[in-house]
Design goal:
The complex is a heterotrimer of chains A (277), B (383) and C (93). Chain A has 8 helices and 9 strands. Chain A has 277 residues and is an alpha/beta fold. An 8-stranded mixed β-sheet of chain A has the order 3-2-4-5-7-6-9-8, with helices on both faces. Chain A is globular. Chain B is an alpha/beta fold and 383 residues long. Chain B has 2 domains: 192 residues, 3-Layer(aba) Sandwich (Rossmann fold); 110 residues, Rossmann fold (3-Layer(aba) Sandwich), CATH 3.40.50. Chain B has 13 helices and 16 strands. In chain B, strands 2, 3, 4, 5, 6, 7, 8 and 14 form an 8-stranded mixed β-sheet that branches. A 5-stranded mixed β-sheet of chain B has the order 11-13-12-15-16, with helices on both faces. In chain B, helix 1 packs parallel to helix 6, helix 3 packs parallel to helix 4 and helix 10 crosses helix 13. Chain C has one domain: Alpha-Beta Plaits, CATH 3.30.70. Chain C has a two-stranded antiparallel sheet. A two-stranded antiparallel sheet of chain C has the order 2-3. In chain C, strand 2 and strand 3 form a beta hairpin. Chains in contact: A-B, A-C. Chains A and B meet through strand 3, helix 3 and helix 5 of A and strand 2, strand 3, helix 3, helix 4 and strand 10 of B. Strand 3 of chain A pairs parallel with strand 10 of chain B.
């Protein structure tokens, strides 16, 4: 190899809207990484791209819909999941994935999140958790760790955050996993796995947000946050971990547990068919 | 399975059920709703009927989810509907705006009750007229129909689906609790006599690229591309160009919003429906809609029997508002009396168009306006 | 050529992959994640800036042959900018 060769096309350009690159996310932002894993999983899924649909909500993570070269719907704040449920029930042959952020899915969208998990509708959810509302400038959200700062919590977040894997497992999702943006192979593998699992699947990916979150919390850039993940992540086997352990606190050197937390066979939602004589 | 979709024949059923049967006859294949008095019977009826014909019924967790779900289903190709009342419509307004922006056809049935707030859940009202028109943020036009009989609950629901599909717009059914709960005769025609207007289908574009918001026809309606048909569309609630891509420019925004508004405004002739009784030589015109029109019809008939030159204009479509018709009436008629079960919502529109005051018979809701009240007002105006 | 303390018997059969690094320069945002996480220390951030003003990665001097096409930079780049492809001739040793 000589040096870095300049290229004009990327191997994934067919599945992304290359005419819209470069995308809007900040340097060091983790959303692009998760999108890449999702794009790769679509290509590796064995399903033609026109059978995949992505639905997103509002926020930086929600912008993924605009960059994927598949049928994509960028809907209202928090309502991506019921929109996706409508698509899936109207056309069950479509592989329907919701790609959105922690605020969109767990705050305003929280009710839809838990009900879709309860119903176990055959929809995949990829939740990029960067611990804040990034698009609007770094406000705290339902997953902001206690004590972390945000523009609406200048003295430190007084609230306890959601523990999303625990929440989703309790609500009834068939498959729940948590990774971070350095776990690129595992993310792609689990998205592929989620495609094959009937019922509701939820993959949380912890991601850096250097401008929204890192800046207020002494994390200089995306790279530093990813290095933090590398140092503190502990892989859980068989998902057997205490609820409290799944909490994330960035102030202390507590481990961040990642891995698969639920993988089961609750019956997926099926629309009723009645045959009358 | 499909042959139970259209229950051709004579029936005796309540308005809500007739509306549900109208939806099925129109080809509705997705209902996502939430129970709310007085529309719950629509959901209950469809919960029983839709599984019989292979259509999807789902009770969502709230009205916000219901509205989102019907948009998703419609985006994937289904004729979809939800049913609610005033408070539920308030919750649906944000996604009503999404339906306008994404130009996704759908039908929202609002069986109105006493409002505001929790109000009178089991009693009629007509006070969502302005909410249907202006409730969501931004500039937009809405189409809304107001049935006055069980038969119209059936017929207008079919029209609502047709208009929604043809013009790629949400359509609101502004019903009221009286018409929703009353039981009358309904005649369901044979299936082949039911007119269906389909969604415009895309033709292949030149460069092999499909632009979901590119308008080629003078009616300003772009063809509809559904999920899973290999168009690789992008639909966003952000201001977008014809590719569907977000375009944050003032120019594109003005162009887009203007087109969405004109899409309805330029096609009002196909959308407006009214009915007139004794209007030709009327000097006193009563304007009414929904259940109030039934009282008004009797009042006007009795006034005529007393020799008073009264007439009735019944609004079947509330929105778009029939401006031209009122401009004529404003000149012809000496007095216009608006009878409505709200504190003057349609009256404002009439006054705006005719440039002079309208006499109002208003009631905030709860009970039908009795014919005698209207008759009294006609008699007074005649003096 | 690699030097081993004891030469493996199957050394002629085992081929260590080699990779060529590619970059779409104007997509790069200089986040340096590829540089930092490359297991073979192939990359460094250069002084060259792309059209947006970001410093883009380059191959470190002397590290040209160390890329084994592990594809980690490919997988972890958020910008769809950097990727590796297998070099035509993989060589052992």
């Amino acid at each position: 190899m000589i040096g870095v060769k300049s290229a004009e096309r990327h191997p994934l350009d067919a599945i992304i809207r290359a005419d819209r690159m470069p995308h809007i996310w900040c340097p060091g932002c983790g959303i692009g990484i998760v999108m890449r894993c999702y794009a790769q999983a679509i290509l590796d899924s064995g399903l033609p791209a026109d059978q995949h649909v992505v639905v997103s909500g509002i926020g930086c993570s929600g912008r993924v819909a605009g960059y994927m070269n598949i049928d994509s719907y960028h809907t209202t704040h928090g309502r991506a999941i019921p929109f996706a449920v409508g698509i899936k029930l109207a056309k069950p042959e479509l592989m329907t994935t919701v790609f959105s952020g922690d605020g969109d899915l767990a705050a305003i969208g929280g009710n839809h999140l838990i009900h879709a998990a309860r119903r176990n509708v055959d929809v995949n959810v990829i939740c990029v958790n960067n611990f804040n509302y990034g698009m609007t400038g770094g406000q705290v959200g339902p997953t902001t760790p206690r004590g972390a700062r945000g523009t609406t919590a200048p003295y430190g977040n007084p609230e306890l955050p959601f523990n999303l894997p625990y929440l989703l497992a309790a609500a009834g999702a068939n498959f729940v996993a948590r990774w971070t943006t350095i776990h690129v192979r595992q993310i792609r593998d689990d998205i592929l796995y989620a495609f094959t699992r009937p019922g509701f699947t939820f993959i949380e990916v912890l991601a850096p947000c250097p401008v929204g979150f890192g800046k207020s919390n002494n994390i200089d850039d995306g790279l530093e946050e990813m290095e933090l993940y590398r140092q503190r992540c502990v892989l859980v086997q068989d998902g057997d971990v205490n609820q409290d352990d799944l909490n994330i606190d960035l102030r202390e050197e507590t481990p961040i547990y990642i891995g698969r937390f639920a993988d089961r066979d609750r019956p997926p939602y099926e629309a009723i068919r009645v045959v009358t004589s | 399975m499909d042959d139970r979709r259209v229950l051709t024949g004579k029936h005796f059923m309540n308005g809500d059920e007739a509306c549900a049967e109208g939806a099925l006859a129109a080809g509705c294949s997705f209902f996502g709703g939430y129970p709310i008095t007085p529309s719950t019977e629509i959901a209950e009826h469809l919960a029983r009927r839709m599984p019989e014909i292979g259509a999807v019924f789902i009770q969502m967790e709230d009205e916000l989810a219901s509205m989102a779900a019907i948009l998703g289903a419609s985006a994937a190709g289904s004729r979809s509907m939800t049913a609610t009342s005033g408070p539920g419509l308030s919750l649906m307004l944000e996604n009503l705006g999404l339906a306008v922006m994404l130009e996704i056809p759908c039908v929202v049935v609002d069986v109105q009750r006493g409002s505001p707030s929790t109000g009178l859940p089991t009693m009629p009202g007509q006070s969502d007229v302005m909410q249907a028109r202006w409730g969501s943020h931004g500039d937009y036009e809405i189409v809304a129909y107001s049935p006055w009989s069980v038969q119209e609950m059936f017929d207008l629901t079919i029209l609502a689906f047709n208009v929604a599909d043809r013009y790629r717009t949400p359509v609101v059914m502004l019903c009221d609790e009286v018409v929703g709960h009353m039981i009358e005769r309904l005649e369901i025609p044979p299936r082949d006599q039911i007119e269906i207007w389909n969604r415009k289908k895309p033709k292949k574009s030149n460069n092999g690229r499909y632009d979901p918001f590119k308008v080629l026809d003078p009616d300003l309606v772009p063809p509809m591309m559904h999920a899973g048909e290999d168009y690789r569309v992008h639909f966003t609630g952000l201001t977008h160009d014809e590719h569907g891509y977000p375009d944050m420019s003032a120019e594109t925004h003005h162009e887009l919003v203007t087109r969405l508004v004109n899409k309805i405004n330029h096609n009002t002739e196909q959308l407006i429906r009214t009915e007139s009784y004794w209007l030709d030589d009327a000097e006193i015109v009563v304007v009414a809609y929904g259940c109030t029109a039934r009282s008004a019809q009797r009042a006007v008939r009795e006034a005529r029997e007393e020799g008073i030159p009264a007439g009735l204009l019944r609004l079947i479509s509330i929105w778009p508002f029939p401006e031209n018709l009122f401009q004529e009436l404003g000149v012809k008629a000496e007095t216009i009396i608006a009878a409505e079960m709200n504190l003057g919502q349609i009256s404002r529109e009439i006054q705006r168009v005719i440039g002079r005051p309208v006499q109002g018979i208003y009631h905030a809701g709860g009970e039908m306006i009795p014919p005698d009240t209207i008759l009294e007002a006609i008699r007074e105006a005649a003096q | 050529m690699r030097v081993y303390d004891r030469t493996p018997l199957d050394i002629s059969e085992i081929l260590i992959p080699r990779g060529q690094v590619y970059l779409i320069p104007d997509r790069c945002k200089g986040c340096e994640v590829c540089v930092h996480f490359c297991p073979q220390d192939v990359l460094t951030i250069s002084d060259e800036r792309n059209a947006k003003g970001y410093r883009i990665p380059m191959v470190t001097n002397g590290q040209a042959h160390e890329c084994v096409n592990c594809e980690f930079c490919t997988l972890v780049c958020p910008e769809f900018a950097i990727f590796t492809l297998p070099l035509e001739n993989s060589q052992d040793g």
